[in-house]
Amino acid sequence: MNTDDLVAECVSALAASDPLPATRALLERASRDSKLREALRHGRTGLNILHNAPDLTVLNVVWPPGVTLVPHNHLMWAAIGIYDGREENRFYRRTGSSITASGGKDLDAGDVLMLGNDAIHAVHNPKRAYTGAIHVYGGDFVNQPRSQWTGENLEEAPYDIEIIRAEFARAEREAETSR
Ligand SMILES: [Fe+2]
Protein backbone atom coordinates (compact mmCIF):
# COMPACT_ATOMS: atom_id res chain seq x y z
CA MET A 1 0.00 0.00 0.00
CA ASN A 2 1.04 3.66 -0.41
CA THR A 3 0.30 6.55 1.98
CA ASP A 4 -2.95 7.41 0.14
CA ASP A 5 -4.08 3.79 0.60
CA LEU A 6 -3.20 4.03 4.29
CA VAL A 7 -5.37 7.14 4.74
CA ALA A 8 -8.23 5.61 2.71
CA GLU A 9 -8.09 2.45 4.84
CA CYS A 10 -8.06 4.51 8.07
CA VAL A 11 -11.22 6.31 6.84
CA SER A 12 -12.82 2.90 6.08
CA ALA A 13 -11.81 1.53 9.49
CA LEU A 14 -13.41 4.56 11.18
CA ALA A 15 -16.67 3.80 9.33
CA ALA A 16 -16.60 0.15 10.44
CA SER A 17 -19.14 -0.98 13.06
CA ASP A 18 -16.27 -1.35 15.54
CA PRO A 19 -13.63 1.23 14.52
CA LEU A 20 -10.96 0.43 17.14
CA PRO A 21 -10.40 -3.27 16.34
CA ALA A 22 -10.61 -2.39 12.63
CA THR A 23 -7.93 0.29 13.08
CA ARG A 24 -5.74 -2.07 15.13
CA ALA A 25 -5.94 -4.75 12.42
CA LEU A 26 -5.12 -2.16 9.77
CA LEU A 27 -2.04 -0.92 11.65
CA GLU A 28 -0.81 -4.47 12.26
CA ARG A 29 -0.87 -4.94 8.50
CA ALA A 30 0.39 -1.44 7.56
CA SER A 31 3.37 -1.46 9.95
CA ARG A 32 4.70 -4.58 8.19
CA ASP A 33 3.94 -3.45 4.61
CA SER A 34 7.34 -3.03 2.94
CA LYS A 35 6.13 -0.60 0.23
CA LEU A 36 4.39 1.63 2.80
CA ARG A 37 7.36 1.53 5.19
CA GLU A 38 9.65 2.66 2.37
CA ALA A 39 7.30 5.58 1.57
CA LEU A 40 6.98 6.62 5.23
CA ARG A 41 10.78 6.67 5.65
CA HIS A 42 10.79 9.79 3.43
CA GLY A 43 8.95 11.69 6.17
CA ARG A 44 10.71 14.57 7.91
CA THR A 45 11.68 14.48 11.58
CA GLY A 46 8.60 15.26 13.66
CA LEU A 47 4.88 14.93 13.05
CA ASN A 48 4.05 14.53 9.36
CA ILE A 49 0.32 15.06 8.85
CA LEU A 50 -1.10 12.59 6.31
CA HIS A 51 -4.75 13.38 7.09
CA ASN A 52 -6.49 15.83 9.44
CA ALA A 53 -10.28 16.08 9.74
CA PRO A 54 -12.68 16.71 12.66
CA ASP A 55 -13.17 12.95 13.17
CA LEU A 56 -9.78 11.49 12.18
CA THR A 57 -6.09 12.38 12.10
CA VAL A 58 -3.32 10.22 10.63
CA LEU A 59 0.33 11.08 11.29
CA ASN A 60 3.64 9.67 10.18
CA VAL A 61 5.78 10.36 13.26
CA VAL A 62 9.56 10.30 12.76
CA TRP A 63 11.28 10.22 16.16
CA PRO A 64 14.97 11.23 16.22
CA PRO A 65 17.34 9.22 18.46
CA GLY A 66 16.96 10.09 22.15
CA VAL A 67 13.87 12.30 21.77
CA THR A 68 11.55 12.45 24.81
CA LEU A 69 8.04 13.88 24.81
CA VAL A 70 6.65 15.13 28.13
CA PRO A 71 3.51 13.43 29.48
CA HIS A 72 0.42 14.60 27.56
CA ASN A 73 -3.12 13.53 26.77
CA HIS A 74 -5.07 13.52 23.51
CA LEU A 75 -8.73 13.48 24.71
CA MET A 76 -9.57 11.05 21.89
CA TRP A 77 -8.68 7.44 21.19
CA ALA A 78 -5.34 6.77 19.54
CA ALA A 79 -3.72 3.85 17.74
CA ILE A 80 0.06 3.63 17.32
CA GLY A 81 1.77 1.26 14.88
CA ILE A 82 5.59 1.12 14.76
CA TYR A 83 7.25 0.51 11.38
CA ASP A 84 10.91 1.17 12.36
CA GLY A 85 12.87 1.23 15.60
CA ARG A 86 11.36 1.40 19.06
CA GLU A 87 8.92 3.72 20.87
CA GLU A 88 8.89 3.58 24.68
CA ASN A 89 5.55 4.56 26.16
CA ARG A 90 5.17 5.48 29.83
CA PHE A 91 1.65 5.76 31.20
CA TYR A 92 0.32 8.04 33.96
CA ARG A 93 -2.88 8.53 35.90
CA ARG A 94 -4.22 11.76 37.36
CA THR A 95 -3.62 12.58 41.03
CA GLY A 96 -5.15 16.04 41.64
CA SER A 97 -3.46 18.56 39.34
CA SER A 98 -0.48 16.24 38.95
CA ILE A 99 0.04 12.70 37.64
CA THR A 100 1.58 9.44 38.89
CA ALA A 101 3.50 6.90 36.80
CA SER A 102 1.41 3.86 36.01
CA GLY A 103 3.34 1.34 33.91
CA GLY A 104 4.54 1.39 30.36
CA LYS A 105 4.89 -0.44 27.09
CA ASP A 106 7.85 -0.70 24.73
CA LEU A 107 6.87 -1.00 21.10
CA ASP A 108 9.04 -2.46 18.34
CA ALA A 109 8.47 -2.60 14.59
CA GLY A 110 5.19 -4.40 13.87
CA ASP A 111 3.73 -3.67 17.33
CA VAL A 112 0.45 -1.79 17.76
CA LEU A 113 -0.76 0.06 20.87
CA MET A 114 -4.31 1.32 21.44
CA LEU A 115 -4.90 4.24 23.84
CA GLY A 116 -8.26 5.23 25.32
CA ASN A 117 -9.70 8.78 25.39
CA ASP A 118 -8.30 9.49 28.87
CA ALA A 119 -4.79 8.09 28.34
CA ILE A 120 -1.82 10.16 29.48
CA HIS A 121 1.53 9.06 28.11
CA ALA A 122 5.15 10.12 27.63
CA VAL A 123 7.13 8.88 24.66
CA HIS A 124 10.85 8.21 24.21
CA ASN A 125 13.04 6.83 21.43
CA PRO A 126 15.80 4.88 23.23
CA LYS A 127 17.56 3.91 19.98
CA ARG A 128 20.54 5.51 18.26
CA ALA A 129 18.51 5.31 15.05
CA TYR A 130 15.29 7.00 13.97
CA THR A 131 11.99 5.43 15.00
CA GLY A 132 9.02 5.57 12.65
CA ALA A 133 5.40 5.29 13.78
CA ILE A 134 1.94 5.60 12.28
CA HIS A 135 -0.32 7.44 14.73
CA VAL A 136 -4.08 7.40 14.14
CA TYR A 137 -6.41 9.55 16.31
CA GLY A 138 -10.19 9.41 16.50
CA GLY A 139 -10.60 13.18 16.22
CA ASP A 140 -8.92 16.45 15.30
CA PHE A 141 -5.54 15.88 16.97
CA VAL A 142 -4.16 19.18 15.58
CA ASN A 143 -6.81 21.53 16.98
CA GLN A 144 -8.09 19.70 20.08
CA PRO A 145 -7.19 21.73 23.24
CA ARG A 146 -5.48 19.34 25.64
CA SER A 147 -2.88 19.11 28.42
CA GLN A 148 0.74 18.33 29.14
CA TRP A 149 2.45 17.82 32.49
CA THR A 150 5.85 19.44 33.02
CA GLY A 151 8.30 20.60 35.68
CA GLU A 152 9.55 18.92 38.82
CA ASN A 153 6.00 18.41 40.12
CA LEU A 154 4.47 17.42 36.78
CA GLU A 155 1.83 20.17 36.94
CA GLU A 156 -0.94 20.21 34.34
CA ALA A 157 -0.63 22.96 31.71
CA PRO A 158 -2.11 23.62 28.27
CA TYR A 159 -0.40 21.56 25.56
CA ASP A 160 2.37 23.66 24.01
CA ILE A 161 3.53 22.60 20.55
CA GLU A 162 6.63 24.84 20.91
CA ILE A 163 8.00 22.63 23.70
CA ILE A 164 7.56 19.63 21.41
CA ARG A 165 9.23 21.38 18.46
CA ALA A 166 12.16 22.45 20.68
CA GLU A 167 12.65 18.89 21.92
CA PHE A 168 12.58 17.49 18.37
CA ALA A 169 15.15 20.13 17.35
CA ARG A 170 17.38 19.34 20.33
CA ALA A 171 17.34 15.60 19.63
CA GLU A 172 17.89 16.19 15.92
CA ARG A 173 20.95 18.42 16.63
CA GLU A 174 22.37 15.79 18.97
CA ALA A 175 21.82 13.06 16.35
CA GLU A 176 23.63 15.22 13.74
CA THR A 177 26.67 15.84 15.95
CA SER A 178 27.04 12.19 16.99
CA ARG A 179 26.83 11.03 13.36
FE1 LIG B 1 0.72 11.18 22.39
Draw up the topology in text.
Layout: H1 3-15, H2 19-30, H3 34-40, E1 46-53, E2 56-63, E3 68-73, E4 78-84, E5 86-95, E6 98-108, E7 112-115, E8 120-124, E9 131-137, E10 147-150, E11 155-158, H4 161-177
Antiparallel strand pairs: 1-2, 2-9, 3-8, 4-7, 4-9, 5-6, 5-8, 10-11
User: Which percent bin holds the helix content?
Assistant: 25-40%
H/E element sequence: HHHEEEEEEEEEEEH
Low-confidence parts lasting 5 or more residues at pLDDT below 50?
Answer: none
**How many strand units?**
11
Q: Biggest sheet: strands side by side, in what order?
A: 1-2-9-4-7
| Structural class by sheet pairing and helices | alpha+beta
User: Ions, cofactors, ligands: which are bound?
Assistant: fe (ii) ion
User: Largest sheet, if any?
Assistant: 5 strands, antiparallel
Overall radius of gyration: 16 Å
Strand residue percentage: 35-45%
Coarse shape: globular
* Amino- and carboxy-terminal Cα gap: 32 Å
Total helices: the number is 4
Question: What's the pLDDT, averaged over the residues?
Answer: 96
Task: Explain what this protein looks like in three dimensions.
With 179 residues, the chain is an alpha+beta fold. It has four helices and eleven strands. A five-stranded antiparallel β-sheet has the order 1-2-9-4-7, covered by helices on one side. Strands 3-8-5-6 form a four-stranded antiparallel β-sheet. Helix 1 runs antiparallel to helix 2. The protein is globular and about 45 Å long. The chain starts with a helix and ends with a helix. The site of fe (ii) ion has 3 residues, from loops.
